[in-house]
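Ligand-bound model needed. 4HQ.
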Amino acid sequence: MGCGRKRMKFDILTLFPQMFSSPLQESILGKAIEKGLIQIRTINIRDFALDKHRVVDDTPYGGGQGMVMKVEPIARAIEWVKSQDPSVWTIYLTPQGRGLNQEISRKLSSRSHLVLLCGRYEGVDERVRELFIDEEISIGDYVLTGGELAAMVVIDAVSRLLPGVLGSDRSAEEDSFFNSLLEYPQYTRPFNFRGNSVPEVLLSGNHSAISLWRKKEALKRTLDRRPDLLAKANLSREDQRLLEEILRESRPDKSRDGA
Ligand code: 4HQ
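Prediction:
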């Protein structure tokens, strides 16, 4: 069984471990856990507070809004994980971090063990970041109530890149062309829904024609919605030809009115 690689471990440091039970145990990630490809453990930061009331937050020095997560419980929790595995890579989820993308996800998927620290309130004491965090990651320019949902996004994006997590014939990263572009449109039955039918080429059985149509649609969509991605993409000769075709088709035809 043990097909090559060792299982990737995720340790989540949170004040709300219950948030992770269902979302990570359904569907593909649930199967990945069952198959032993990933291991997800939640660690309650409160369990590392030593005082009688297990206090994990306090008011900010200098005054101001809200509460700040204290350094000691987080320090003790991370040190506990590090005592089990010194090679662990620690991540703090914050809008101040590097924006998560496919390249970062790919790099993280080559690590064997991640710690994901989820902040609440006004975030963590700055010394946590200085002393215990290897990398700060943001999942986007918006404000969440805590890092928990962001941690789930990271785990999801990273896990699906591990060998065996997606079905055998679907290694999402294999298709080099479509990787850097938006997806082409997909259809399934019925052929006609309320007068809206499926593009004929997809029923033709002509696989090279289908492949060409999909490339062109992916290029169209990317040009329309995410030209920034197109600028970064490595386009083949054929891709460039398709792109010129798209531009030609979208421009008003000036050759006909003698202007
Ligand atoms: N938060 N990407 C504030 C985020 C966030 C994001 C997590 C809210 C940290 C203290 N995390 N807490 N966006 O908005 O990662």
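The longest strand covers residues 89-99.
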